[in-house]
Amino acid sequence: MSKGLKGLAVKALLMFSVVLVSACGAKDAGLNLTIIGEGSVTSPSGVDCSESCAATVKLSPPTIGNKLVEITATPAPGYTFLGWNNQYCTPDDVCDLKYTGLCADQLLCLTGFIYSGQRVEAVFVDSSLLVDSGWSELAVCAILGDGEVRCWSASQDEVEQVPALNNPQQVAVSDYAACALVDEGISCWGKPNFLPEDGPTVYPPLEMEMLRGEICVLDQEGVKCWSAYGPPEIPEFVNPTNLRKRSVETPEFIGKEFCVDDEGAEVCW
After folding, report:
1. pLDDT tens digits, residue range 60-102?
2. Which domains does the chain have, with CATH numbers?
3. Who's near 262: CB < 8 A, 6+ residues apart?
């Protein structure tokens, strides 16, 4: 091997060694946690909060690339956990919070990775007051006793500005809009560009879900969907049941979709 090639090989080995050394130790990252209601949030990575707190989590080595930190919500006696306000969480009480690693030197990561902090909100409500609730990654809504509807938004936007509602019975929420079943039909509020328009007549009892600016209901007549962007396309069904929304991650699509069960098969769109 020529001296030039040997020199390059040595440099490459040294660079790789520096990356390995910088990745070996645990790193700290910030967590800004807001707790609504009564409950606690814990994590084996160093979080134990029964009220809103600023915590430091330990990212386990090797600290290369993105890291996941598991946090768990536990409601206090008499309370129900409704969900998290964070794009990486689900309605489940356990969330794998994602910390994105960026090269500290903006080049070859020779000096390791840096991790920006995360903000998450955990929403708990009094179980004796809870009538119905809706969840999305960025907003959570609940119908409480005496017809009160409350929403908590990660961006503190128009979703939290709940209008006067006549006898709200059910609620659904997307990231930037929410809708409730009231005596007159379906009433929606939130960011103007995400408000479903020109909804059909619905016949309770019904199931209701929202994604972005679209709402779907399953009532006595079947599945009905409408949106802020014109009439959406929906499949044909025989006997749809169990309307829901779910996360999807495939090579072709990453996002969320509506689903029902129809004659023993799952149909999603």
Report:
1. 776 566 889 999 999 999 999 999 999 889 889 999 999 987 7
2. 22-108+117-123 (2.60.40), 129-268 (2.130.10.30)
3. 237, 238, 239, 240, 241
